[in-house]
C-alpha cells in the first residue's frame, strides 16, 4: 500500500493561524495518539505492540471507560503518557442548526 501524503488545506490553516502546522526537522519521528479508550481487547493489544518496539504513545481516555476498566487504564499509566477526559467534547464551527424549544 503506497503512502499518500496528507496536506492540510490552506483554508483550514487560515481559520486557525495560531496552530503549528509544520515543523522542519531532519529527525524521523512520529507521534502516536489513541482516542476513546481504554478498552481491554484493543488497548492491551496496542500496549503489547508498543512494548515490542520500545515505543511510547499518548492515550486520550474517557472517564467512564477508565472507571469500567481500571486495570487496563493502569497499564496505560505504567507504559505511556495518559491523558484523561470525563466526557467527549465535540467542537462545532458555525451556528447550531437546532434551537431549544
Automatic annotation (TrEMBL):
A GO CC term attached to the entry: membrane
PROSITE patterns: NODB
One biological process term in Gene Ontology: carbohydrate metabolic process
Keywords of this entry: Hydrolase, Metal-binding
Superkingdom of the organism of origin: Bacteria
One annotated GO molecular function: metal ion binding
Gene3D superfamilies: Glycoside hydrolase/deacetylase
Domain NodB homology stretches: 28-101
Name of the protein in its database record: Polysaccharide deacetylase
Source organism: Jejuia pallidilutea
